[in-house]
Amino acid sequence: MLDLSELDHPVSSHDPDYKEIVMLANYGPNPICKGCLSCSKDNGCIRCQHKLFFFLRREGMRQYGECLHSCPSGFYGLRTPDMNRCSRCRIENCDSCFSRDFCTKCKTGFYSHRGRCFRGCPAGFAALEELMECVEGCEVGQWSEWGTCSRNNKTCGFKWGLETRTRQIVKKPAKDTIPCPTIAESRRCKMAMRHCPGGLQDILEEFMKLILCYPG
Predict the structure, then answer these.
(1) Cβ contact 33:25 at 8 Å
(2) What per-residue confidence (pLDDT) applies to 123?
(3) Per-residue pLDDT tens over the stretch 123-145
(4) 101 neighbors 134 (Cβ within 8 angstroms)
(5) Which helix (H) or strand (E) covers residue 110, if one does?
(6) CA atoms in the 13 A half-sphere facing the CB of 95
(7) Other CB atoms within 10 A of residue 172 CB
(8) pTM above 0.70?
(9) CA gap 214, 211 in Å, rounded
(10) Each residue of 193-215: pLDDT tens digit?
């Protein structure tokens, strides 16, 4: 049986909801009717106490009303003068939301970003795995031109060398644990001058010229 003194607000025989509340006494043992102002044996709660949220639960072909202190996963509490209701989150892959268009927690495997849920974070943002959120990532500038081809700090004397280009970090990430993209890279290149001026090869070439000029 329902104890009227346990309701969230006092009820008198002059209350317009009094008859509906008394009707609940017939269905008191039914757990579906907990927190109801009016209840049906077949359809569950029809109206809720003013602090609770009305939730229409569906199980196969059957549906029935419940009065809850907080809304289940995928729904949020919408308070109205008539009756508080559980309204479905409209954000795809959302587990709980603040309003129909702003998710506060995404389903497993999805990252939260500005009220939406993503498989991967948008460009310019990095995944914070411990919170499954997208935060501002490390921002880098444009690549420089490729540098001079060199090897062992020399630009001659070898057939092959390396050339390098760099870019600068223009914005540090929101968390120190978020890595920045590479800011330097190198690639193999062909030396413009295989022989260095004034080197042994030049001396030998000059010597050979002298020999040819003075054969005797």
Answers:
(1) no
(2) 82
(3) 878 888 888 888 877 888 899 99
(4) no
(5) none
(6) 11
(7) 13
(8) no
(9) 5
(10) 877 776 555 556 665 666 666 55
Q: What is the dihedral of CA 71, 63, 44, 18, to 10 degrees?
A: 80
- Record the tokens describing residue 163, joined without a space: 């050339």
Instruction: DSSP for 128-194, please give it.
Output: ETTTTEEEE--EE-PPPPP---BBTTBSBSSSEEEEEEE--EEE--SSTTSPPPPSEEEEEEE-SBS
The DSSP call for residue 123 is T
Q: What is the pLDDT of residues 86-118, one digit of tens each?
A: 988 888 888 888 888 899 889 999 999 989 999
In this structure, which amino acid lies at residue 57? R
10 Å Cβ neighbour count for 49? 20
Evaluate the CA torsion angle 105, 106, 107, 111 in order and state its sign: negative
Q: Can you tell me the distance from the alpha carbon of 178 to that of 143, in angstroms, rounded to the nearest whole number?
A: 21
User: Do residues 68 and 34 make contact, with C-beta atoms less than 8 angstroms apart?
Assistant: no
Vertex 117, ends 115 and 118: CA angle to 5°? Answer: 135
Residues in the chain: 216
Residue with tokens 């892959």: 93
Say which residues have a Cβ less than 8 Å from residue 92's Cβ, sequence separation at least 6: 117
The encoded tokens of residue 115 equal 């009220």
Q: Which two tokens stand for residue 184?
A: 């330097």
How would you class 216 by CB atoms within 10 Å of its CB: exposed for 0-12, middle for 13-18, buried for 19 or more?
Answer: exposed
Q: Are the C-beta atoms of 77 and 70 separated by less than 8 Å?
A: yes
At 6, is the secondary structure helix, strand, or coil?
Answer: helix
